[in-house]
């Protein structure tokens, strides 16, 4: 079963566009995109896929500069989020935003190479790499490639450190789910960690910190993902069916 899933994912990338009808051809047009920091000058950038501290362990294809891009509509809503959290004493720290299709293809190739586990201890210690496709941690298409999705956290201006979210960006496991140890709809901390395979947990403060980010994003036009506390997509994204492939660099 696992080998079949890996093979199917690779075949999607190899099929001609006429056969892969579910895959929208990637486009190189960046005309509707902006540099996030042009719209949100207070944002801090830590573009993980430009460096080597990520689940692959190397710079990802298509990241030519350590910058972040979004559609203008998403960036303008993110500015409202920034103003909101700034009033609470925080700044936005961005790990990833627009992601070219060539980067997603890089992830797929990496996931198919089961021998490459150099970053396992840091990002997926509880999982065998062979299940990453099956459990949809790696997919042949990503919402990031449509240009209105952003991965981010909060930076505490008082402590001059990242706000403690109880887990790292791109951790593959239930500990990254917004409902881990609490109810994201009510903001209630329950401490329920039964989903964690190793009995890991987060504190009430760490859950509350996740909710500060989540609630600010939801207030200003974004929707959350049920498997990643750091991942948000503009509700009214302008390119719902278009995947882009221009590289990440200053526009």
Shape estimate? globular
The major pleated sheet works out as: 6 strands, mixed
Tell me the strand percentage band: 15-25%
State the low-pLDDT regions, or none: 1-23
Order of helices and strands: HEHEEHEHHEEEEHEE
CATH class: Alpha Beta
Number of extended strands: 10
Q: How far is the first residue's CA from the last residue's CA?
A: 43 Å
CATH third-level topology = Muramoyl-pentapeptide Carboxypeptidase, domain 2
Tell me roughly what share of residues is in helical segments. 25-40%
Rg measurement, Å = 18 Å
Taking all residues together, what is the mean pLDDT?
92
The number of helical segments is 6
Please identify the oligomeric state: single chain
- How many individual domains? 1
CATH architecture: 2-Layer Sandwich
> Strand pairing plus helix content: what structural class?
alpha+beta
Which structural traits does this protein have?
251 residues; alpha+beta; Muramoyl-pentapeptide Carboxypeptidase, domain 2; 6-stranded mixed β-sheet; two-stranded antiparallel ribbon; 6 helices; 25% helix; 16% strand; disordered N terminus
Q: Would you kindly provide a written description of the structure presented here, covering whatever features stand out?
A:
By secondary structure, this protein is an alpha+beta fold. It has one domain (2-234): Muramoyl-pentapeptide Carboxypeptidase, domain 2. It has 6 helices and 10 strands, in the order αβαββαβααββββαββ. The strands form 3 sheets. Strands 2, 4, 5, 6, 9 and 10 form a 6-stranded mixed sheet that branches. A two-stranded antiparallel ribbon has the order 1-3. Helix 1 (2-14) packs antiparallel against helix 4 (101-112) and helix 3 (72-86) packs across helix 6 (204-219). The radius of gyration is 18 Å and the shape is globular. The termini are far apart.
């Amino acid at each position: 079963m696992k080998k079949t899933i890996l093979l199917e994912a690779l075949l999607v990338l190899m099929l001609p566009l006429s056969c892969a009808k579910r895959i929208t051809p990637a486009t190189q047009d960046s005309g509707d995109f902006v540099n996030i920091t042009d719209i949100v000058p207070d944002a801090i950038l830590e573009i993980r896929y430009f460096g080597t501290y990520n689940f692959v362990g190397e710079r990802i294809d298509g990241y030519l500069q350590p910058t972040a891009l979004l559609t203008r509509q998403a960036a303008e809503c993110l500015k409202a989020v920034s103003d909101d959290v700034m009033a609470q004493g925080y700044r936005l720290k961005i790990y990833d935003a627009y992601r070219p299709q060539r980067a997603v293809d890089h992830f797929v190739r990496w996931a198919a190479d089961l021998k490459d586990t150099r970053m396992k201890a840091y990002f997926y210690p509880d999982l065998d790499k062979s299940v990453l496709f099956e459990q949809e941690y790696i997919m042949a298409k990503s919402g990031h490639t449509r240009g209105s999705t952003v991965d981010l956290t909060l930076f505490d201006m008082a402590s001059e450190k990242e706000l403690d979210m109880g887990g790292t960006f791109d951790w593959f496991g239930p500990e990254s789910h917004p409902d881990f140890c609490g109810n994201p709809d009510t903001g209630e901390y329950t401490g329920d960690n039964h989903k964690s395979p190793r009995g890991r947990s987060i504190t009430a403060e760490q859950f509350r910190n996740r909710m500060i980010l989540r609630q600010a994003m939801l207030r200003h036009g974004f929707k959350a993902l049920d498997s990643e506390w750091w991942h948000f997509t503009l509700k009214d994204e302008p390119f719902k069916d278009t995947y882009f492939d221009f590289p990440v660099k200053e526009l």
